[in-house]
């Protein structure tokens, strides 16, 4: 029995989208029942909530799309639910089923004003607590928030809404930090917190009792901007999200638009995209190594990582023209063919990297200070990794096989042989080792492709104005930090009705409270370093 059949047995008369993704519309009064049944299914538990995407369907109501996946079978389904009450919109919370929903529901509330019954923390996530209105609603007044230079006060009391037995809605107050809590601010400053992230941290002595991440210091409203851009114009904004996954982010958006518009790209472009993605992964993991060591007080390995990373950036620059910001992927392929020296330099680089990687391990991996500060510190269980949506190397360090390249192959990943790096310890050292091993695995992938790039065109011709058929479409890639997803709703126009990005970093910041609790304050920076989040990707 497939997933939609299971849902239709629970709720007769559901509707399933005919175009795009398999979106199942569930009435709001039955939504909670369906969500519980899918999450607790014995044969195929939908235990990974990939994302919650808030939506304003205007006459169709305010609501959300829930992207679910089973960590057992890797099957996916999308649930859709909404309420027509625009003045007081409420949806049932699912944060008791999936822990990641607590922060994802806050994001939906922040931008759409939808409150979730039984979510204990209904504060804004990115915008100021005194912000007026909900910016991603279609009727939002863009002039409703003049420049405010007053300091923002911390919201230490949050409201939790719940349903009374008589069907009325009541609320109660929850305390974030009380008068008796000793709270220190960590951040926001870059690069100490890997971007402008602020962590309000309560301590008992030197032991952490709670971490409350404050996001939004560089929120740029990229998803709102997308609604007024044509599809080719939207590409420029992806490079500014996770800038250490710039190729991969843009790859995901191009894939989503190409799939929706029915554009077939050449095999040559697929090979080039795959090689660029893996070079980008090595680039990111080298920076991860450099910054983690510097976070922990070491300096020499920082220069090692930057030395090899500079070689990758030189290779990028010759072909793409960019170093940090990459605008190489285009709808229909890539913007230019490979530089004549590209293949030779890539092979020389991989040979060089293999010869020096031993130095990286000699100076840090086996160092007694490193092992003492990382092993057994910041433990994350496999179950919590899945429930909190911690994808990428941080999830694989806890034994969760979540590599999109393996389980949902795209580009030419189904044509190459590579291992999905898994560790089971779930500590900071395992998160470090996953990324160090992935550097070598990326080299192995590139070696299989670099001499076999097929001839042909690097980009197919596309119309200057691209219109996508009505429907919901999505695509996902394995970025340097985990699953980066693109969720697109089209109403048949040349601009997207809604274009949302699944942040890889938001779950990595949300998980800090879980992994840092009962550790020492001195461990927090090292734990955060092994999570490897990038703040612009979170704030969007």
Automatic annotation (TrEMBL):
Transmembrane segments: none annotated. Pfam families: Complex1_30kDa, Complex1_49kDa. One of its GO terms (molecular function) is NADH dehydrogenase (ubiquinone) activity. GO terms for cellular component: plasma membrane. Keywords: Cell membrane, Membrane, Multifunctional enzyme, NAD, Oxidoreductase, Quinone, Translocase, Transport. The keyword Translocase applies. InterPro entries: NADH_Q_OxRdtase_suD (IPR001135), NADH_quin_OxRdtase_su_C/D-like (IPR037232), NADH_UbQ_OxRdtase_30kDa_su (IPR001268), NDH1_su_D/H (IPR022885), NiFe-Hase_large (IPR029014). It is found in: Cell inner membrane; Cell membrane. Gene3D superfamilies: Cytochrome-c3 Hydrogenase, chain B (1.10.645.10), NADH:ubiquinone oxidoreductase, 30kDa subunit (3.30.460.80). It comes from the Bacteria. It is a peripheral membrane protein. It catalyses: a quinone + NADH + 5 H(+)(in) = a quinol + NAD(+) + 4 H(+)(out). Residues 295-463, 466-540 form the NADH-quinone oxidoreductase subunit D domain. Belongs to the complex I 49 kDa subunit family. In the C-terminal section; belongs to the complex I 49 kDa subunit family. NDH-1 is composed of 13 different subunits. Subunits NuoB, CD, E, F, and G constitute the peripheral sector of the complex. NDH-1 is composed of 14 different subunits. Subunits NuoB, C, D, E, F, and G constitute the peripheral sector of the complex. NDH-1 shuttles electrons from NADH, via FMN and iron-sulfur (Fe-S) centers, to quinones in the respiratory chain. The immediate electron acceptor for the enzyme in this species is believed to be a menaquinone. Couples the redox reaction to proton translocation (for every two electrons transferred, four hydrogen ions are translocated across the cytoplasmic membrane), and thus conserves the redox energy in a proton gradient. This is NADH-quinone oxidoreductase subunit D. It comes from Phocaeicola coprophilus. The gene is nuoD.
């Amino acid at each position: 029995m497939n997933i939609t059949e299971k849902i239709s047995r629970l709720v007769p008369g559901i509707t399933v989208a005919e175009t795009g993704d398999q979106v199942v519309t569930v009435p709001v009064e039955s939504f909670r029942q369906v969500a519980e049944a899918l999450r607790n299914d014995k044969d195929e538990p939908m235990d990974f909530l990939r994302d919650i995407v808030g939506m304003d369907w205007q006459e169709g109501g305010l609501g959300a799309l829930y992207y679910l996946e089973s960590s057992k079978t890797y099957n996916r389904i999308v649930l859709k639910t909404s309420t027509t009450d625009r003045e007081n919109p409420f949806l049932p919370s699912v944060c008791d089923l999936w822990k990641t929903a607590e922060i994802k529901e806050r994001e939906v509330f922040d931008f759409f004003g939808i409150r979730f019954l039984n979510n204990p923390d209904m504060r804004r996530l990115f915008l100021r607590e005194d912000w007026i209105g909900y910016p991603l609603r279609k009727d939002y007044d863009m002039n409703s928030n003049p420049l405010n230079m007053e300091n923002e006060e911390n919201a230490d009391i949050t409201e939790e809404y719940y349903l009374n037995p008589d069907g009325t809605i009541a609320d109660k107050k929850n305390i974030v930090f009380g008068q008796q809590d000793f709270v220190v601010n960590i951040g926001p400053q870059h690069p100490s917190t890997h971007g402008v992230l602020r962590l309000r941290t309560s301590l008992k002595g030197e032991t952490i009792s709670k971490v409350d991440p404050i996001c939004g210091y560089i929120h740029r409203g990229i998803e709102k901007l997308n609604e007024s851009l044509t599809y080719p114009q939207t590409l420029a904004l992806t490079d500014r999200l996770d800038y250490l996954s710039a190729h991969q982010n843009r790859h995901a958006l191009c894939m989503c638009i190409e799939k929706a518009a029915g554009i077939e790209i050449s095999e040559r472009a697929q090979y080039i995209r795959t090689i660029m993605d893996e070079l980008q992964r090595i680039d990111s993991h080298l920076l991860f190594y450099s910054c983690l060591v510097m976070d922990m007080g070491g300096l020499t390995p920082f220069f090692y990582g930057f030395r090899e990373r500079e070689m990758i950036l030189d290779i990028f620059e010759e072909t793409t023209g960019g170093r940090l910001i990459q605008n190489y992927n285009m709808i229909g392929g890539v913007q230019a063919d490979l530089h004549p020296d590209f293949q030779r330099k890539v092979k020389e680089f991989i040979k060089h990297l293999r010869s020096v990687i031993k130095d990286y391990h000699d100076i840090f991996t086996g160092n007694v200070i490193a092992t003492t500060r990382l092993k057994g510190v910041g433990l994350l269980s496999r179950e919590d990794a899945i429930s909190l949506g911690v994808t990428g190397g941080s999830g694989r360090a806890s034994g969760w096989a979540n590599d999109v390249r393996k389980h949902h192959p795209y580009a030419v990943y189904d044509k190459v042989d590579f291992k999905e790096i898994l560790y089971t310890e779930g500590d900071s050292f395992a998160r470090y080792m996953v990324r160090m091993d992935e550097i070598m695995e990326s080299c192995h992938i590139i070696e299989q492709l670099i001499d076999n790039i097929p001839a042909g065109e690097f980009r197919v011709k596309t119309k200057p104005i691209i219109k996508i058929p009505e429907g919901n479409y999505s695509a996902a890639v394995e970025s340097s930090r985990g699953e980066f997803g693109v969720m697109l709703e089209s109403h048949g126009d040349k601009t997207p009705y809604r274009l949302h990005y699944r942040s890889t970093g938001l779950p990595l910041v949300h998980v800090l409270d879980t992994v840092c609790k009962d550790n020492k304050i001195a461990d927090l920076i090292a734990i955060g370093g092994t999570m490897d989040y990038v703040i612009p990707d979170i704030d969007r």
